[in-house]
Specification:
By secondary structure, the protein is an alpha+beta fold. It is 57% helix and 16% strand.
Length: 699
């Protein structure tokens, strides 16, 4: 026991030592790399800058790497100058580190790097009797060392101290771009026939920054990388303009997809290169751009997604939270106003009815026609229904804690890869930590979109597991809703018999996912049989299902369907509604019945009848659901039926469900329909529909 506790106590210390060792190795490599980046052909100030910017004890790794880099053979002028600057800069940083505020440490790093390079450079100039031009270059080198010391320090603060930061201030983004340019400059010496690895990586860096950061990201990254390469040697001066213009144009065309952004960069780069003429350096630059572009197009969309966090605004979360509260407040106020209007119309209508009756009594005439009162009642109900819908929308907004703009931008890129042009994308996270992705898009190419592959790619992008999307056509656009992978899934079976084997059946049904982790089933039975019943049943089921998919609540959707059936024709139109909502996260089941017959649940082998009194929709001005809740688990069954299946009683159905083995739900549905038809011995026939759902563990 003591040994186990001792090992547990030593583990955090071992982890800290391991992390420190990894950090030392990383900064050793960065110091070695930066010491090989040169400007003006033979000056190498970046190794000193990196060592001065290294945080805490990691300064030892950065200094050791830069020291080795300066000692190795290279083009750097007077290596001893940089060795002295390294020691002086490190000593200055170490001595003053605890005396400055954390917010001023980047300035300390820049000052230590610039001052040490300046002092040692001037000493070399005096000893060697350097000319005025050489002395000016030493001064310029010290300014570059100081500037990049500050850039490196600010970049490390962003990447090292704040790894979860979503979005950068513009000045921080510029520091990151210039730091990346210096590191890539060190790789420019790795070349084949003049084609440089460093410049290929620089073009890739600019393309990804333009893709995720738009015009601003592309321009800033192009300026940072271009400035570093332009300072390296006179033959590459044109790169500062070529990379900056290319990054800007790639960012402007990034909403049109990867190909459009890459083509824009290539054309801008070629145009900027024309001023130099047909030199080997320009041709090598064109080859570099071509290679980088091909690699960029081949790499999958998820590569480079980390760029997103550099370009998301920091104030998205508080701004979104305030906007959400404002919208919720306005929706609540509007809902109350609509309810008030409904009450006012009803009160005014009652007063007018009283006045109408008094006037009719005096003049011995007929009072207002009943149709007028019916229309007024429907109008009052619609005002009330609109208010209820607004209240439901406000409640839905209250559930969601925040919008994830960073992830939404990544989802946009995935949609473009599937030839879908995003119109609007929202990623919202509720108070339970579950994310929902809602996207509106248009088709931008031929072919069929594989929903499973699309969900898989979006899951990878969002680092979550999503179900295939619920898709609905909205005008020329497609609305897609992705919900997180649920605990359960459903196997469904359905069977139907038309009265006297007619072509049209009075029963209509739909089952679908609502995009929020619920499986919804709707079964409607129109009055009578044949075409008229089919119209009423189909209208009730379709309208109710469309409203549910649009996010309208159960009660509000029922009121709208009821009003639609009432005003559909002068003849009586009615239909039952039997609605099932199954929460696939928890296994909770909600039954909503409006004149619908009995349903059944088989839980742990026991059959539970689900029955509730009610009136079909389309009869009265106001319709109401009767709601029943149940809990089920994996392996349990739910059965919805139309009244034709119950014409010979319900006991035999309960017995069949109880004795049913683990065969498919479709077989049970077909068996119930076949036996219901066979049991009918009164010489009459009716429409019969049976829906069977089996809950399956999804893990």
């Amino acid at each position: 026991m003591t040994t186990t506790k001792s090992r547990a106590a030593d583990k955090p210390q071992e982890d800290a030592l391991f992390r420190n060792l990894c950090g030392q190795i990383v900064f050793f490599a960065l110091g070695l790399l930066c010491s090989k980046a040169t400007v003006f052909g033979e000056y190498a100030p970046f190794g000193v800058a990196l060592a001065a910017a290294a945080p805490g004890t990691l300064i030892w790794g950065g200094t050791a790497g830069a020291l080795l880099g300066y000692l190795l053979p290279g083009v750097a002028r007077v290596p001893v100058h940089y060795l002295a600057a390294l020691l002086a800069g490190g000593a200055l940083r170490w001595a003053l580190n605890d005396l400055v505020k954390p917010s001023q440490k980047a300035l300390l790093s820049g000052g230590a790097a610039g001052l040490s390079v300046l002092c040692t450079g001037l000493c070399v100039a005096v000893v060697n009797g350097a000319s005025g031009g050489s002395t000016a270059l030493f001064v310029a080198e010290s300014l570059l060392s100081g500037a990049w010391g500050y850039f490196f320090a600010r970049t490390l603060e962003v990447l090292w101290d704040k790894p979860s930061t979503a979005g950068l201030l513009p000045q921080d983004l510029c520091c990151c771009a210039f730091s990346a340019g210096a590191i890539l400059l060190a790789l420019s010496g790795v070349a084949v026939e003049g084609v440089s690895l460093g410049r290929i990586l620089a073009v890739l860096f600019i393309l990804y920054a333009a893709r995720f950061g738009g015009a601003a990201g592309g321009a800033v990254s192009g300026i940072g990388a271009g400035a570093a390469f332009a300072l390296s040697t006179t033959g590459l001066n044109y790169l500062s303009g070529a990379y900056a213009l290319g990054g800007l144009m790639a960012g402007l065309f990034s909403p049109l997809g990867k190909l459009a952004g890459a083509c824009a960069f290539i054309m801008a780069n070629v145009i900027a290169s024309l001023q130099v003429g047909s030199t080997p350096t320009v041709f090598a630059g064109i080859y570099e751009v071509a290679i980088a572009t091909v690699v960029y197009m081949i790499l999958p969309s998820r590569v480079g997604a980390r760029f997103l966090r550099f370009f998301a605004r920091k104030d998205d979360a508080p701004r979104t939270d305030g906007l959400r509260r404002s919208i919720v407040s306005r929706l609540d106020f509007t809902a109350q106003t609509m309810e008030k209007i409904s009450d006012t119309v009803e009160q005014v209508g009652d007063k007018l009815d009283e006045a109408d009756q008094l006037e009719s009594a005096r003049e011995h005439t007929m009072p207002t026609l009943p149709g007028k009162n019916l229309a007024r009642g429907l109008l009052i109900q619609q005002f009330s229904t609109v208010g209820t819908v607004l209240e439901e929308m406000a409640s839905d907004l209250e559930i969601y804690e925040r919008c994830d703009y960073q992830t939404a931008r990544a989802v946009r890129e995935v949609l473009r890869d599937f030839n879908l042009t995003p119109v609007d994308v929202n990623c919202v996270v509720d108070r339970f930590g579950r994310m929902k992705v809602e996207a509106m898009a248009t088709r931008s190419g031929a072919g069929v979109v594989n929903k499973a592959q699309l969900a898989q790619e979006i899951s990878r992008t969002c680092s979550r597991r999503f179900n295939p999307p619920v898709i609905m056509r909205v005008g020329a656009n497609w609305r897609m809703v992705f919900s997180e992978r649920v605990r359960y899934r459903v196997l469904a079976g359905c069977a139907r018999h038309s009265c006297n084997n007619q072509k049209l059946c009075g029963d209509s049904y739909q089952y679908f996912s609502d995009g929020q982790g619920h499986e919804v089933a709707v079964l409607s039975d129109g009055m009578g049989t044949g075409g008229r019943a089919a119209v009423d049943g189909t209208m009730a089921a379709d309208v109710f299902s469309d409203l549910m998919k649009a996010g309208v609540g159960f009660d509000s959707a029922l009121k709208i369907v009821n009003s639609a059936l009432v005003v559909k024709s002068v003849d009586e139109s009615l239909a039952t509604l039997d609605v099932l909502s199954l929460d696939l996260y928890t296994g909770s089941v909600e039954f909503y019945k409006a004149g619908a017959p009995m349903s059944f649940v088989r839980r742990d082998g026991d059959v539970i009848p689900i029955d509730a009194p009610g009136v079909p929709v389309g009869i009265l001005e106001e319709a109401k659901f009767h709601k029943i809740n149940e809990e089920i688990d994996a392996g349990d069954l739910i059965i919805l039926l139309s009244d034709g299946a119950l014409s010979s009683g319900a006991n035999w159905i309960a017995d069949k469900i109880s004795g049913w083995d683990d065969r498919m739900p479709q077989e049970l549905a077909e068996s119930i329909v076949a036996e219901a038809v066979a049991r009918r011995v009164d010489g009459h026939d009716d429409d019969i529909t049976v829906l069977v759902f089996k809950l399956i563990d999804n893990h």
